[in-house]
Amino acid sequence: MSMIAAFYSGKSILITGATGFMGKVLMEKLFRTSPDLKVIYILVRPKAGQTTQQRVFQILNSKLFEKVKEICPNVHEKIRAIYADLNQNDFAISKEDMQELLSCTNIVFHCAATVRFDDHLRHAVQLNVTATQQLLIMASQMPKLEAFIHISTAFSNCNLTHIDEVIYPCPVEPKKIIDSMEWLDDAIIDEITPKLIGDRPNTYTYTKALGEMVVQQESRNLNIAIIRPSIVGATWQEPFPGWVDNLNGPSGLIIAAGKGFLRSIRGAPMAVADLIPVDTVVNLTLAVGWYTAVHRPKSTLIYHCTSGNLNPCNWGKMGFQVLATFEKVPFERAFRRPNADFTANTITSQYWNAVSHRAPAIIYDFYLRLTGRKPRMTKIMNRLLKTVSMIEYFVNRSWEWSTYNTEMLMSELSPEDQRVFNFDVRQLNWLEYIENYVLGIKKYLLKEDMAGIPEAKQHLKRLRNIHYLFNTALFLIAWRLLIARSQMARNVWFFIVSFCYKFLSYFRASSTLKV
Ligand SMILES: NC(=O)C1=CN([C@@H]2O[C@H](COP(=O)(O)OP(=O)(O)OC[C@H]3O[C@@H](n4cnc5c(N)ncnc54)[C@H](OP(=O)(O)O)[C@@H]3O)[C@@H](O)[C@H]2O)C=CC1
After folding, report:
1. What is the DSSP letter of 229?
2. What's the pLDDT tens digit per position in 281-308?
3. Nearest in space to 218 (alpha carbons), one of 255, 251, 174
4. In the prediction, which pLDDT does 306 show?
5. Which pLDDT band holds residue 483 (cuts at 50, 70, 90)?
6. Strand partners, 260
7. Which residue, among 153, 92, 112, 131, has the nearest Cα to 15 in the 3D structure?
């Protein structure tokens, strides 16, 4: 029997960010391994015209929860969706709901965050810092609370190259930042943002670092742990391989590459691609929840959930495998033939941006205009290149994260728990994982039918022929212009033509002789 699964039985668990990528997988695993848990409270806000209940209904009816519904048929009775907006005071939770949360919660998993790199500092602070502080204040009023698990990111200290499982302080105290956001206007915040984030690349990583400081400062006598995952990708094994449901991290870029929009990126092919499957992060999170509640470590422990130091893969290898998978299972209606090239050289990268990204978009828009349609490709390309510019920081560097606490925890687990809550990335086969990831993107994000693969392959063949035709035409035009302008080019041309003529004459003469 798994000790971790048994621990969560009968427990009341509060999850923030349960409608997000990681939150859904966390809920799924909890219900699948501990169907006897008492209740999962989730803080949900209405979104995109859906009420909180409709959102929960949609999650439970998704493919991700198919296994859970077999194991735990009354799963819908065990989820309590609580209307909440983390941007508001007391999260806008009703008095009755707040009372229930405070008196019943045993474990808190705090996953909610804004993960947008370019979020306005005021909003990023509100969600990643102030909301964390408020949640900790709530947690301190929960008499039955056994553990509070905060999800941060391995990149919260990406301004360093070697990162230990400790909290690194930011120069300005989070409390001062929170206060100043209340009275400074947007223009001033915009002005001071670069100074505050310093050598971090964006407001996301900066506010996640501040969030960690808040956790440390507000910990009081709570049992707290922080988990720092690196770049979270599709599921590795559970509940099935390749599940993914948003465009964050590499997923959106893999789509852009598979559809032929993005063919090259400025990135170091040998830099470590520190991807970590979402089910691995969830397994570690649940194991940490158990360990923190049962063993009550004296200080706040930080766990790095990374792959680079134990089972490294680099961007070049990843791009190669992504491309190899596109050959086997191409995406439908590609714009151009896929490529996945990482180039470290800025000038080469700018050249490919112009030739391989912007020029085809302009040509296609011209074609759309000619055929009386609205041009759109240049706009798509501009947004894509903006996204690429934001991730370039992360694909041009390598980091080293120490994983002593994570390895210590692994050694504390029983063999059964090591199997059920496996977070040992040494067992991950990258080639297999990436293939399943691309397949998962095709199935669950693009919702493309596998029966369409032969047609998609045909389409790629047509694109290849168009590509050859286009290049040949381009070459002939360029050559024609060159001959018209340069005596040297004309001489070379006459030499080639006369050489071919002589060769053909010789070939014809020798074949006549044989007859
Ligand atoms: N994805 C990744 O690569 C990595 C993620 N992380 C961390 O993991 C955690 C989870 O990330 P992930 O699941 O990928 O992120 P998602 O963007 O998928 O999910 C974010 C969650 O936060 C919720 N949320 C955001 N704003 C509010 C609000 N105002 N009120 C209530 N809920 C809100 C979202 O709710 P809604 O659905 O309503 O928007 C959603 O459930 C985050 O803390 C992130 O920093 C760390 C490393 C890598």
Report:
1. E
2. 999 999 999 999 999 999 999 999 999 9
3. 174
4. 98
5. confident
6. none
7. 112
Whether the per-residue pLDDT at 474 is higher than 90: the answer is no
Residue with tokens 């998704």, as numbered in its chain: 62
152: which 2 tokens?
A: 């941060």
DSSP 421: T
* pLDDT digits 0-9 by tens, 331-371: 999 999 999 899 999 999 999 999 999 999 999 999 999 99
What fold, for 3-240+275-311+399-412?
A: Rossmann fold (3.40.50)
- The alpha carbon of 237 is separated from its chain's Cα centroid by a whole number of angstroms, namely 17
Q: Is 249 in the pocket of ligand 1 (CB under 6 A)?
A: yes
Q: How far apart (Å, rounded) are the C-alpha atoms in residues 358 and 363?
A: 9
pLDDT at 513: 67
CA distance 161 to 159: 7
In whole angstroms, give the CA distance from residue 420 to residue 33: 8
Spacing, Cα 304 to ligand 1 middle (Å): 18
In this predicted model, which residue has the larger pLDDT, 509 or 363?
363
Alpha carbons 43 and 22: distance in angstroms, whole number = 14
Token pair belonging to 324: 């190899």
pLDDT, mean of residues 391-413: 97
Q: Compute the average pLDDT of residues 60-65.
A: 96
- The structure tokens listed for 148 are 């509070």
For residue 295, the one-letter residue type is H
The string over 95-120, giving b where at least 16 C-beta atoms fall within 10 Å of a residue's C-beta and e elsewhere, is eebbebbbebbbbbbbbbbbbebebe
In angstroms, the CA 131 to CA 129 distance is: 6
Q: Which residues contact 24 (CB under 8 A, 6 or more apart)?
A: 18, 59, 62, 64, 245
Q: Tens digit of pLDDT for each residue in 305-335?
A: 999 999 999 999 999 999 999 999 999 999 9
pLDDT score of 515 more than 80: no
User: Pocket of ligand 1, candidates 53, 62, 115, 284: which has the most ligand atoms within 8 Å of its Cβ, to mutate?
Assistant: 115
- Report whether residue 322 contacts ligand 1, using a CB cutoff of 6 Å: no
Are the C-beta atoms of residues 208 and 152 closer than 8 Å to each other? yes
Distance CA 146, CA 106 (A): 5
Q: Which residues lie below 8 Å from residue 135, measured CB to CB, with a gap of 6+?
A: 16, 108, 110
* Integer angstrom CA distances of residue 73 from 37, 77, 184, 228, 420: 13, 9, 51, 33, 21
- Whole-number Å distance, alpha carbon 16 to ligand 1 midpoint, is 8
CA distance 199 to 168: 14
The amino acid that residue 305 corresponds to is: C
377 is written with which tokens?
């490709």
CA of 254 to the centre of ligand 1 (A): 21
Mean pLDDT of the 233-248 span: 97
Helices (H), 263-403: 278-295, 315-328, 346-352, 359-370, 377-395
How far apart, in whole angstroms, are the C-alpha atoms of residue 256 and residue 467?
19
